[in-house]
């Protein structure tokens, strides 16, 4: 990793049907910006003073108008994009209330194990997706 590169700290929610026995995961397609059209796990940048869990709950409420429960930590993705270094903490999550309305995203899909590579994941997500595929 280049030392002069900006580090962006992000949290991502792997929203699943059931946190104890996940069989389906919720993927979203970015609706704007540099990575528009790429598929990801909803989430975003952690703000100062927030825990990762607080950041995730805030982001999912903003992006999907949905309240989530944040469960176990999955992994932290470290990925060097040309313009920044991404450090992304990922957690299993479950819907508590709300309907996963797409406020910012272009599209969304619930994916089962065998469908997981049907969408074009952002480059940073590939290692996470592989780990999840071994679990669901
Ligand atoms: N939320 C999320 N971001 C991801 C994933 N994979 C990945 O490379 N990213 C990148 C895309 C963005 O550069 C960054 C997330 O920041 P963000 O969601 O706040 O995105 P943004 O650039 O639209 O920020 P902003 O305009 O809202 O400030 O991390 C992922 O699975 N989920």
UniProtKB/TrEMBL annotation:
It catalyses: 8-oxo-dGTP + H2O = 8-oxo-dGMP + diphosphate + H(+). Pfam families: NUDIX (PF00293). InterPro entries: MutT-like, Nudix_hydrolase, NUDIX_hydrolase-like_dom_sf, NUDIX_hydrolase_dom. Residues 5-136 form the Nudix hydrolase domain. SUPFAM superfamilies: Nudix. The keyword Hydrolase applies. Its cofactor is Mg(2+). The keyword Manganese does not apply. GO terms for biological process: DNA repair; DNA replication. Its EC number is 3.6.1.55. GO terms for molecular function: 8-oxo-7,8-dihydrodeoxyguanosine triphosphate pyrophosphatase activity; 8-oxo-7,8-dihydroguanosine triphosphate pyrophosphatase activity; 8-oxo-dGDP phosphatase activity; 8-oxo-GDP phosphatase activity; metal ion binding. Keywords: DNA damage, DNA repair, DNA replication, Hydrolase, Magnesium, Metal-binding, Mutator protein. Belongs to the Nudix hydrolase family. PANTHER family: 8-OXO-DGTP DIPHOSPHATASE (PTHR47707), NUDIX HYDROLASE FAMILY PROTEIN (PTHR47707:SF1). This is 8-oxo-dGTP diphosphatase. It comes from Butyribacter intestini.
């Amino acid at each position: 990793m280049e030392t002069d590169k900006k580090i962006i700290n992000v949290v991502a929610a792997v929203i699943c049907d059931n946190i104890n026995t996940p069989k389906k995961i919720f993927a979203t397609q970015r609706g704007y910006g540099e990575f528009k059209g790429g598929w990801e796990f909803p989430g975003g940048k952690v703000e100062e003073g927030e825990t990762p869990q607080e950041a995730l709950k805030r982001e999912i409420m903003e992006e999907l108008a949905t309240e989530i429960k944040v469960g176990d930590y999955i992994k932290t993705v470290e990925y060097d994009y040309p313009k920044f270094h991404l450090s992304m903490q990922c957690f299993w999550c479950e819907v508590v209330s709300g309907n996963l309305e797409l406020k910012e995203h272009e599209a969304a899909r619930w994916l089962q194990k065998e469908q997981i590579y049907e969408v074009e994941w952002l480059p940073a997500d590939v290692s996470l997706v592989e780990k999840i595929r071994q679990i669901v």
